[in-house]
Design a protein that fits this description.
By secondary structure, the chain is of the alpha+beta class. Helices cover 21% and strands 31% of the residues.
Length: 210
């Protein structure tokens, strides 16, 4: 579905809720659009189930951009994964104050939870919310847990977060309602670098306990 946003952007939506199919289609479409520049487009931003396209209205009109987008949507697009990364994580203790509670709620020991959490590589679903913040998924049903009932006013950059069948990584200091299960020294945000983030939607992450 195409949705105009003012006179200089449109949203391409692939689903009304987050699932594997909608997210994969959003990532594949964003890659295809970035690989073949569209006249007048100044930015392409994939999200969990949609892709934002910003354009210069002096150069192109909505009808022109929408027409090109519909042509792209009609083509088969590769959904191949991106790079593979290995991220060392320090679980529990002061690095992951919610680990024991999370494991208990899932009826596992902390060691069993860590083993299950790290058993399968996760795919980066999107980079959004805060600079360098990544959503990764999806965990199996046995590891699905809602967010906390309260929000922590601040967690440190590198915090590894867990909720809603996903693991997220904070690249800056942020407030969060997610469970904090660990910390990584890996940094996904450097404002002086081009681009400022390393992880991209479609990349695969292998978590390793240290």
């Amino acid at each position: 579905m195409l949705q105009p946003l003012g006179d200089s952007a449109l949203l391409v939506r692939f689903g009304s809720h987050l699932d594997e199919a909608a997210n994969s289609r959003a990532i594949a479409f964003a890659k295809a659009a970035q690989a073949k520049p569209i006249d007048g487009v100044v930015e392409i931003v994939p999200s969990l189930v949609s892709v934002l396209i910003r354009y210069d209205p002096i150069i192109s009109r909505y009808q022109d951009i929408a027409g090109t987008v519909r042509l792209l949507l009609g083509r088969n697009q590769s959904s191949a994964d991106g790079r593979e990364w290995r991220l060392p994580i320090r679980f529990g203790g002061e690095n992951g104050p919610d680990l024991d509670e999370v494991a208990g709620l899932l009826k596992m020991s902390p060691a069993a939870f860590i083993s299950h959490h790290n058993a399968t590589p996760l795919r980066v679903l999107a980079t959004s919310f805060a600079p360098g913040f990544v959503y990764c998924g999806f965990h199996p049903e046995a590891l699905v847990l809602p967010r906390r009932n309260s929000v922590r006013p601040l967690v440190k950059a590198g915090s590894v977060l867990f909720a809603a069948g996903q693991t997220a990584i904070a690249a800056t200091d942020i407030p969060t309602g997610w469970h904090v299960i660990g910390h990584t020294a890996f940094s996904n945000f450097d404002p002086t670098a081009v681009p400022p983030t390393q992880l991209k939607a479609g990349d695969r992450l292998i978590f390793e306990a240290v």
